[in-house]
Design a protein that fits this description.
With 70 residues, the chain is an alpha+beta fold. The protein has one domain. It is built from two helices and two strands; from the N terminus they run αββα. A hairpin with a 2-residue loop joins strand 1 and strand 2. Helix 1 runs antiparallel to helix 2. The longest helix is centred in the middle third of the chain and has 16 residues. The chain is elongated and about 65 Å long. The mean pLDDT is 83.
Length: 70
């Protein structure tokens, strides 16, 4: 399920109205509190903007030193 601007709009509407349930693609999600709703919205914005930090566990960095101290 891809996150879209419509999903962010639904989260915004729930935050403004004080509701804890939001419907995405026919599925209803109920959050425990408004803080979780706000965190979900922040995550959705990061996903859409592509600012999630992607790491590749197969890339390593090495630091070399020589016996001369260079």
């Amino acid at each position: 399920m891809a996150i879209s601007q419509t999903d962010i709009d639904a989260l915004d509407a729930a935050i403004v109205s004080g509701a804890l349930s939001v419907e995405f693609d026919g599925r209803r999600i109920t959050y425990q509190n408004t803080a979780q709703l706000i965190a979900a919205r922040a995550h959705a914005v990061q996903v859409i903007s592509g600012n999630l930090r992607r790491t590749n566990p197969h890339i390593f960095g090495f630091r070399f030193t020589t016996s001369r101290g260079d």
